[in-house]
Amino acid sequence: MILEELKVYQLAMEVGEESWTIVSKWNHFERDTIGKQLVRAADSIAANISEGFGRFHFKENRYFNFVARGSLFETKTWLDKAVKRNLITAEEFSKLKIEMNELGKLLNGYIKKIGKENSVGEPEAVYFSKNSIANDPYEFFYNNIDSINWLPFPNDY
């Protein structure tokens, strides 16, 4: 399998490009403050998935995907700030929120799959709840992802 075939990587790239497109339309001050942070965080998701994929050992791959997951949450924070400051529309926010929730599910599934059966492949739409990973030493990194609303986006928007 090659990196570009991973759905989690493809969606991470899409979120980064959409963030860039939105931020590139902002005025200088907004772009220079919140915009740069948003784009860097969004781009970091795909970059860390890529770096992990290129690492020799599955534990390194898993580590970089945990970093990507952190960048996903950072991106979510910058999007929350952008919508509260009226820098993005409710429609843009809603679209990105849905994509990021899906990306979170894919990323958690991918992290769980890394190192199993010596594969680097992506899981076949298998998502895990806390009950199914109770014996996993990385348990605290996972969320209950039985629904797409596991990321703590406010419901106001």
TrEMBL record:
GO terms for cellular component: ribosome. Transmembrane segments: none annotated. InterPro entries: 23S_rRNA-intervening_sequence, 23S_rRNA_IVS_sf. Pfam families: 23S_rRNA_IVP. Keywords: Ribonucleoprotein, Ribosomal protein. It comes from the Bacteria. This is S23 ribosomal protein.
